[in-house]
Every structure is written in structure tokens, then in C-alpha cells.
Amino acid sequence: MKATLKIKNLLLGTVLLCSLNQLGFAERAQLAEVDTELGAEKVKVELWGDKLTNGYADQLLLVFKDEQDRLLSTYRPSLSGGYNCYLDTVNLKTGEPQVLLVAGKGDWRAPTDFRILDLTEQKQVRELLSAEESQGLVEKAVWKGDALQVVLKDGKSNEVQINRKIMEKLSEPKRKPVYQGLTSLTAYDLDEDGQDELITLQSISSEGQLLADVGGVWKLEDNGKWRTGAYTIMLASAGTENTINDGKDEDGYTVLPRKMLLGGGEATYPLIICPGKWELQEKINKLVQTKTKDILQDFYEGKADTAFNVVLATDKMLSLQLISGKDSFIHRHVHLDMQEGKEIQLGDIFDVENPDFIALLNLLNGNKRVHFTKKVPEEWYIQEDKIFLLQILDGREEVSGFALGNLHKFLLPQPWFHKNTD
């Protein structure tokens, strides 16, 4: 039967206006927007909420409109509020529109609430992924001696030995394991049947120290029930502190890590949230998705692990390093104009066509395995007061670093750096 949304009655408009005015119109803000289709009709889904000064959005409300921006219906989800709220479309059931609603419980480190909404019902929206599922796959996590016993929703118990150095960081009376629901969710068609599965991650910690991540795959069956499997428990490493896979809260946007575990492999990719600027957010994330598509495909096929690093973050520019490999790793980079939503090229910053620029690079280059000819490498990044150029030679990644101050003569007028960088 053709799915369609209709105006239920004239009270819908009144309910919407009341909800918008209850806390004061000035406090109400549109948080996100996404387009979908109901049969042959295009529908715009808006997310509204009461935006507080600390970034928290309360009293979430979904508003459905047609192509002429006319109100079709509204829905108040069981997820009442959160941080860095956003919407996306997923394809769990062919021909039936579903929308993913996401809201964080804190900053980028905190767990996240997820809902998946089925829009095909004319009388009411159904939550395919509800508050119960958003609690994750872990039923119980307790200490059994120095081992961590993890019981999953399927009833199976797993005992894992936590790294000794991590154990030494925990105080005996307060080391109760904590698991607060899903921290990550990715929709992807793993079995290539035309319908997405959900790849989820849930973290177990104690006293703020990560102990383990629990991954799983969710499949929505024809009866509307979830079948879960492909469970993976990955122990936290006690390695040195670094910023790999760290998110970032910056003026005007947030970088959220999204992590997956499959078959012993792991992948973490960035998702960018630009509150109140969903068109900019869409542009930025499409650029990132283009850059991560190949390396994530390698992960899905078990060929490589992936990670990312925020190497530069200002209100105007975000540079992300994308890392891929198993025993050895390659680094790709995407540089984003956070005002215009476009990719920044090295030629936008330096006069790369000037032969004197290339001559200066060769003069200053400390990596004797590298010689620059007529072109500079495509891969580059700027960190602190240096620029790094990367290229592959004989199957090996070579890096050359240069102080920005030594190259100031060739800096172009642009909004990201001053002409006289010293």
C-alpha cells in the first residue's frame, strides 16, 4: 500500500504552535533537517528543541513537511533531549522510509542515544530502535577476580583479562565496571541484500578508564524484531596517551568519533556536527565520506583497520588525518573550510606553481630520500607551526617537514593563515 503522511486534523497545527510557544519562541531552535520520501512524495523532516546555553537541547520534536513546506504531522520521540543532535536516513526495510535520530548524553566522549523511526504509518510513527535497544548488547559486566565477566543479551558469558597496567590505575573499592548504552552506530549493507544492518559499539569503563569495547551487528527481521550477532570484545590498550580517534569540541562544530568492530578488525571515522547549520554540515560530511569510502570498504572486507586524527582545528579550518592499514599504515588527509563547506587544497595556501617554491623545498628538505620535481605531493597537513608533505616512494610513505616561517614568502592571501607567518 502506498505510504503517505496526511494532516490528521486542524489540531496538529495548534499542538505545534503550543509546543513552540510553551517555553518561549526565542528559546526554540531547529536542530537538524533531513529529506526522505514517502511513496512518490518528498518529505522534509525537521528536528526542533529547546536549546539551552550549555548546548543541551530539550523537548525534542520532529516536524514533517511536504515540498511546499506545509505541515503534515509532528512526533515527539521517546528521546527527550541531548547534545549534538542530528538526523540521517537509513534503509532497514526496502521501500519504507526510516530516519535515524541521534543525541549525545554529553560531549564527544559520552555515550549516545539512538532512535530509528519508521515513517510509513499514517496514524503514528513507530520506533524500530527504541530506548531499550539503545542500551546496547551488554546485560552485565562484573569483576571475577582480576578478569572482567561480560554477559551479553544473548545470555552468553565471556571472561576477559584486563591489561595489568590498566588494572593498576584502578582503586580497589571504586573499580565497578560502567556501561551506559551505545556509544556508536553505523548503518551499512554488510550482506549486500539491499538493506542496511546496524554496526554498534558499547564501551565498558571504570573510573573513567576504558576497559573494553563490545561490538555487534543488528539485523531487522520481517517480524520487526532485531537479530544480533557477530559479537566482538576488544580490550583497551595500555599504550602511551595519544590523540588518535579523539573527537573535538570547537567553536561552531564538533568532531564525533564513530567506531566499529568486525571480525577482529576495528575502524573509527569522524562525523562532523555543525549545530544550526545543517546545509554546511551536509557538505562537510559528504567531503569526509568521499575521502573515507575506500578505506572503510577495505575495513568491511577485512583488509585494513582505519583510524583518524584531528591535526588542526580552528573556527575556520579543520584538518583530518585518515589512517588505514594492518602491519603498515598510510595517511590521507582532508582539509575543510568550516565557513564555506569546501575542501582546501595546498594551492589555496601556497604558490605551489612557483618554481622558486619547489626549489626552496628541496633546499630546506631534511629527508634525503625525497626530492621534489615539478609538483608538490597531494598529501599534506599543517600542525602547530610546521607543514608536512607526504608521498609514497618504493612502497614506503615518506614525510618531509618545513617550518611555516621559512615559507612565508610564498603564502597566498587567504582566510586561514596570515601572510606574514613567522
Low-confidence regions: 1-26
Helix content: 10-25%
Our Rg estimate from Cα atoms comes to 24 Å
Name the quaternary structure: single chain
The ordered H/E elements are HEEEEEEEEHEEEHEEEEEEEHEEEEHEEE
Strand content: over 45%
Q: What's the shape?
A: globular
The order of strands across the largest sheet is 1-2-3-4
Number of helices: 5
What distance separates the N and C termini? 67 Å
* Class from secondary-structure proportions: mainly beta
* Number of DSSP-assigned strands: 25
Question: What do the pLDDT scores average to?
Answer: 88
The largest sheet, given as strand count, sense and whether it forms a barrel, is: 4 strands, antiparallel
Describe the structure.
There is one protein chain. With 422 residues, this protein is mostly beta strands. It is 13% helix and 45% strand. It contains 5 helices and 25 strands. The protein has helices spanning 11-21, 131-134, 164-168, 278-300, 355-364; strands spanning 28-38, 41-51, 57-65, 71-75, 83-90, 98-104, 112-118, 126-129, 138-144, 147-152, 157-161, 182-188, 197-206, 209-220, 226-235, 248-250, 253-262, 265-273, 305-313, 317-325, 329-337, 342-343, 379-383, 386-393, 396-403. The strands form 7 sheets. The chain has a 4-stranded antiparallel sheet with strand order 1-2-3-4, covered by helices on one side. Strands 5-6-7-8 form a 4-stranded antiparallel sheet. A 4-stranded antiparallel sheet has the order 12-13-14-15, with no helix packed on it. The longest helix has 23 residues, at 278-300.
